[in-house]
Amino acid sequence: MEQNSTKILKFSGIVFIGLLVVSLIFFFIPKAGKLKGLEYNDAVIKGKETGKGLFITPFSRWDKKMKLSSDILFTNKNIKQLLDSNFITVILDLDNNKNDKIIKDYQIMGNFSILTDKYGSPITYLFNTNTAMEFEILLKEALKLPFFEWNNFKEAQSKSSENNKPIICFFTSYINDNLRLAEYLKINNNLDYLNMNFNPVLVYTKFPPNYELAKQILGFDDELIKSVELSMQSEKSNNKMNFSNYSNIKVTILDKDAIKIAQTQIDSDVMNNGNFQEFIENTMKGERK
Amino acid sequence: MKNIITLVKFDLKKYWSISRIITFMIFAIIINFFVLVPNYFNFPVTEIKINMLTIMQGLLSFFVPVSVLFFTGAIIFSDKRSFYLRTILTRPISRDEYLFSKYLFSLINLLIATLFFAIFPTILSFIIYNDNGESGFFQYFFTYLFYIIEGLLFISISITLSFVVNSYLNIFMLAIWIFLENTLINGVLANFVSYSKSLAIITDFFFPSGFSDAAKLIGNVGVLFWESLLWGLTALAFFFTLSIYLNLKTKIDTISE
Which single residue of A146, A258, A281, B243 has CA 20 to 30 Å from A129? Predict the structure, then answer.
């Protein structure tokens, strides 16, 4: 009888060790549902080649909530299909030091994914909720944003010399400004007018790669740009990817040789008026500065 | 197996005295009556549809640990103190049979308790209120199954504790354990995990919460989270092994009070 007890003890001990090993394997394998991600740099190259934006989602072994939401969202067939067909996925391992720069650039502090254009510049963000349906609805809405189609300044310049349309740059400083701009362009056929007459470029000034460009194109010492520069220099500041604030959207119109034609900003009055064509025509006439 | 069933029968007869059955039934009627209270005040109004699985989850998450606390607290210690353990083990019954009979006895009690305190109120809710139909049968089934296995885990923890500590300390430790899991670890600490790796280690490696995590997830979104389930099974295997070891080493004539 004593021997039988020892046998059971040995058996259950082996089962425990086996389960512990399997659990640890599951624990240490970084995976975000069924998504297959590329390294950030490879994804940017592939994004430019394919014209697809980037979907940057964080993953940490040490965050149970992050693991749960990844497992819920990225095992969902509809979400996976939407992401695979529209984006190049980057699963950002938050525990790996080599990703520190990307984490700092995109200010990934919590459980949210970032959608960027094909050049890696952030367009919007989605919270990784625990409800697949909610995430799917928000993702479909995000896909309707026009900025994924737009070129960066360099490519817009070469396109401008082909089609003789001027370049129009929108400078946003908070990620919510992108969404406000999209809402503004959605009404009164503003987007059609824009596409017909201009080569549009979105410059997200708080994202380091576009900051210098913003300064160069804007061509003046803007208060906002100064504050961005200060916030970037400050180690303590973590407001580069501020999700709650918004400010005026600056607009610069340039010809194909990148010579400034007009400069203005979209404030709340312009937003409320809603007529983009009138606003631009007035600006071009020099009525608005 | 025959010995185990005989022991369980004996335990059940010994435990379920008439006074206990009456007390239990009064509590069961009160709990089931509480389901009727919102209907009496016409709240929620009849057009509103409710997810019945949420009701079942709420009841199970409370009554599973509480039932274990009541039925399994100090289960081995009380046998030692009353010399029942010595009486049993001096007969042709092995220590394993004795231990497994305790597991089976506790599991049967847990099933009875969840039937009266969780399943019946859920069925009653189905009859009285409108179900929103969002959850399928498998979600109900797996949610119940995972909570029962979580109960089994609590039983193994309770049995392990009752080998080494006295009755009051056993119940106190088990209550603290349940409080830790439900409130502190998964409630308070889990909210700060994104900012601190050390807190994340505590919440992630508090592996006994695996089954309840898996139950919540399959209930809320219909997804089976393997990692949680594996941690739960690991914890179950660990405490089960520990209880077998302590059962093997325990001295039948010693009372450590």
Answer: A146
pLDDT at A160 over 70: yes
What is the ipTM, given to two decimal places? 0.81
Q: Are B211 and B225 in contact (CB under 8 A)?
A: no
Q: Is residue A220's pLDDT more than 60?
A: no
| Residue numbers in B near A12 (CB within 8 A) | 237, 240-241, 244
Nearest chain A Cα distance for residue B139, angstroms: 15
What was the pLDDT predicted at B22? 93
Residues of A in contact with B245 (CB under 8 A): 9
Model pTM score: 0.70
Residue whose C-alpha is closest to residue A249's, from A153, A178, A154: A178
Q: How many CB pairs under 8 A join A and B?
A: 87
CA A143 to chain centre: 12
CATH H superfamily, domain A40-144? Glutaredoxin (3.40.30.10)
- Which chain B residue has the Cα nearest residue A134? B221
Instruction: Verify whether the Cβ–Cβ distance A65 to B227 is below 8 Å.
Output: no
- Judged by DSSP in three states, A91 sits in strand
Same fold, A40-144 and A147-284: yes
Buried-state track B203-239, b at ≥16 Cβ within 10 A, e below 16: bbebbbbbbbbbbbbbbbbebebebbbbbbbbbbbbb
CA distance B124 to chain A (A): 28
B135 neighbourhood in chain A, CB within 8 Å: none
The partner residue sitting opposite B248, judged by closest CB among A9, A19, A61, is A9
Instruction: Give the tokens for residue B45.
Output: 């109004």
Domain range summary for chain A, segments of one domain joined by +: 40-144, 147-284
- Confidence band (pLDDT; 50, 70, 90) for A131? confident
How close does chain B come to A18, measured CA to CA in Å?
8
Architecture of domain A147-284: 3-Layer(aba) Sandwich (3.40)
B171 to chain A nearest CA, in Å?
26
Q: What is the pLDDT of residues A57-82, one digit of tens each?
A: 988 877 777 877 887 888 888 898 99
SS (H, E, C) A233-249: HCCCCCCCCCCCCCCCE
d(CA A69, CA A72): 5
pLDDT per residue as tens digits for the range B219-238: 767 777 787 888 889 889 99
